[in-house]
Amino acid sequence: MSVFKRFHPRLQHALVNRLQWRSLRDVQELAAAAILDQQNCIVLAPTAGGKTEAAFFPVISGLLTDQLPGVGCLYLSPLRALLNNQEERLGLYTDMVGLKRFKWHGEALAKDKQAFLKEPCELLMTTPESLEVMLISPHVKANTLFQNLRYVVIDEIHALAGVDRGAHLLAVLERLSQISQFDFQRIGLSATVGNVNGLLNWLQGSSKHPGQIIQPPQNPGKKQIEIKLVDEVELSNLVGQRAFGKKSLIFTDSRRRAESLGLSLARQNIDIFVHHSSISREEREQAEAKVTAGKNVAIVSTSTLELGIDVGELDLVFQAEAPATVASFLQRMGRTGRRPGSVTNTTFLSTNSESLLQAIALVELARSHWVESIKLDDSAWPILVHQTMACCLQHGSVTRHQVWQTLKAASCFSQITESAFYSLIDFLKSEDFLSEESGVLSMGLKAEETFGRRHFLELYSVFSSPTAYQVVSLSGQSLGAIEWPFADGVEMGSCFRLSGQGWLVKRINHNERTLWVEKSSGGVAPKWGGFAPMMLSYQLGRKIRDVLVSEQIYPYCDSKARQRLDDLRQERMFLRSHFAPLQISGPHTLWWTYAGGKINNTLRYALAHELGCEITSNNYSLRFPETVLNQQDFDALLQQMSLADYWHNSALLQAIQLQLPEQRLSKFQPCLPENLQHKMLAKEYLALSETQTFITDYLNSGTAD
Fold first, then answer.
1. How far is CA 292 from CA 303, 310, 495, 498, in A?
2. What gap in Å lies between CA 180 and CA 192, rounded to an integer?
3. How do 344-350 and 478-483 pair as beta strands?
4. Which three-class secondary structure state does DSSP give residue 408?
5. Is residue 705's pLDDT more than 60?
6. What whole-number distance in Å separates Cα of residue 262 and Cα of residue 252?
């Protein structure tokens, strides 16, 4: 029997008469049963697979069954743009049964927020950062607003889980659990991930509800994948020819590349828009609307359109070069093939050998049904600092014991002991980030100086925004932002590109950090900060090596790509001699590990300590001075490094940590003692246990793989 019969009668009536639905999809049947049975769950389905309805129909049914004052359901999104995109859909579903929803974020009008607080509605749509604002703000009576919270739905949860924002969200949920009289259900909506059970455990926290994975079998469907080797001119011409008369997405992996590619494509006979995080909301929404409504139109995008923002039925997806993960590839490809009879497709346009090999490896891993596991943090120290300060502001007066009792169930703190937390509090007190009087914690002078500007605005978000200049047209239209290092070189009369358009600088106000501009035909793409070398996974690195040593022909590669692959296989014939061969190359020795970024980093720093020389590395190899290595001594050293005790040597770990680049990974990093800062950097750049496993595999491989 369909779960439809378990829905509230008002919802049943609306589904049949308002939406003209006659049945539910498999994912909706399974998710609805789990949610109505009061289970936490992760719902996995491709883009446009019905995940939103799978979660919200049983939630709406529950809200109708027990109509209580205040917010009954929270919908949390990692992107403000996704909130805007879902606003109409969720508004339709609530309106058709007599419920209401409200969207709260930084750009919502103050009068609308006040009206909501005066008369709260059943569904609140927001972001984790805006939810933090609500908990801290003295103008929001959070204890009343959320006392009847029964459901939390987190969209695109995979985009949050592996980063600090996800740890922050878990901590905020634990703070909400202290307010609500209910053990609210936690429902995550996600694309495919490699460790979905881990993701569910990560989400559970203090909730006592049982958990379930909702992942119905998928009909494979027809897919069309092409990999083409092109130069920049060919790339532009090919997109122009194929995209003509259609709706397309062209993905790149940097804002600068998106702008430059947008310029070259603007010469084609298609309407081109550019979409990335430094373009204003208005400009991005205009691009989304144009593509949704039009034909013969394309958007050049970074990952901002990788998530579930709906831009209608797309015909084609192009990928300039290759993304870093199988998950990104699948998510991007999944933007097509949504119409009955249409084909899911991606065309990789590689301009160099490295991206060609990476594209082939991604496709082959996807064909073997392998997807990356999300690295779930279990000792998020900077978030613990942030949340301790947030608790101080939220409650006015709070003890260290109360903070720990509130936060300890969050899985992002599961490897932090109570005594370690108290040691952190003592350190924060010693540095004047916290004050403690009669057992009650409050913000210290240093914390107020660092985070207290504009009513502690800096404390509402767990990440720092770079210093940026706002770009505004002479008519007052917000266009986006460019970052300080580039803006510092901009002069009156100079030109740059933003949002796929050239702009002439007419006026500069350095105090307000604003550029006033008018349209121009020229200009260079800005440089944005935050670029880091792409660190590939071990699995992707080794798959690239497998492609090189294989004789397999990949039918989805064009003739130029196949020829380049043949040439690369001939050049690297030596790879067949060993799992990870050493090669003398001029004045250097190369160790071809194909082990990915983190393992090669770890090997680099450990071997530099052991050999006393400078070593460089990338995703594929390590480079040594020729004179420091011979095979026999090298294997003897690796034999020593294969032992578990080797990697637990404090002197070695300290030597490795001293070599790590000095980088600010979190705005709360300076609040941590030095040893915890080193652990943060090590977590970002190193993979100790995986490196030991790699060395063991190397030693066990013999002379041939």
1. 18, 8, 30, 21
2. 31
3. unpaired
4. coil
5. no
6. 10
